[in-house]
Design a protein that fits this description.
Number of strands: 17
Structural class: mainly beta
Helix content: under 10%
Radius of gyration: 19 Å
Largest sheet: 5 strands, antiparallel
Number of helices: 1
Order of helices and strands: EEEEEEEEEHEEEEEEEE
Strand content: 35-45%
Length: about 200
């Protein structure tokens, strides 16, 4: 199976309902309210984001999130890893000496992204690496989550016969036409970097 890439312009990139914390932005933590982007008098710790790392303002504490996209929802700090195709929430240990990354379940992700259809990598056919989506009328929002040992560095969506819009994270699209969509690394299909095919019908 060979596919030609359908180019998607920057204007076709859709945003998520949660705003990405920008580089060099400050975020704050309080024991009572959790994480926030606004400083107030009850702040226990403040951090600045530098790429994937959060540095405490006093520089005595740093935490590598290993995530490309960071946002706050309901006082929880959440990160998305494009290589792992998963979401994580970050929590302090009891003494607040370090943070832990806790993988979010499919149900937790579905609660955050209620408009998306969540598809696990293990849901794809083991023989063809394909998954059939019987699209309803209108647009179908799709999000892939990884529950395997595979890595997804530089993976993205391509197609030659369906229309879709990308989101600002690599595992989410909005399909508006029936057809075939490939999720792959540079259209490769190897044991280490297999492609995954969405058949939108």
């Amino acid at each position: 199976m060979f596919l030609f890439c359908l180019k998607v312009s920057a204007a076709d990139t859709k945003t998520l309902p949660y705003k990405n914390i920008k580089q060099n932005s400050h975020i704050y933590y309080t024991e009572s309210d959790g994480w926030t982007i606004k400083r107030h008098k009850n702040v226990n710790m403040s951090f600045v984001r530098t790429e994937k790392v959060l540095f405490a303002d006093d520089k005595d504490f740093a935490f590598d999130t290993n995530c490309d996209y960071l946002f706050i929802t309901n006082g929880v700090l959440v990160g998305y890893s494009a290589s792992e195709l998963n979401f994580y929430k970050f929590i302090f240990n009891e003494s607040h000496e370090y943070m832990l990354a806790e993988a979010m379940s499919q149900q937790e992700v579905a609660q955050m992204f209620k408009e998306f259809r969540i598809i696990l990598i293990s849901d794809f056919s083991s023989s063809t690496n394909s998954f059939v989506i019987n699209k309803k009328r209108g647009k179908e929002k799709i999000m892939l989550l990884n529950d395997t040992e595979l890595s997804f560095d530089n993976y993205g969506f391509t197609s030659n016969n369906t229309k879709y819009k990308k989101y600002c994270i690599n595992n989410a699209i909005e399909a508006s036409k029936k057809g075939l969509i490939q999720f792959s690394k540079m259209e490769n299909d190897t044991n280490n970097t297999p492609w995954f095919i969405l058949l939108v019908r």
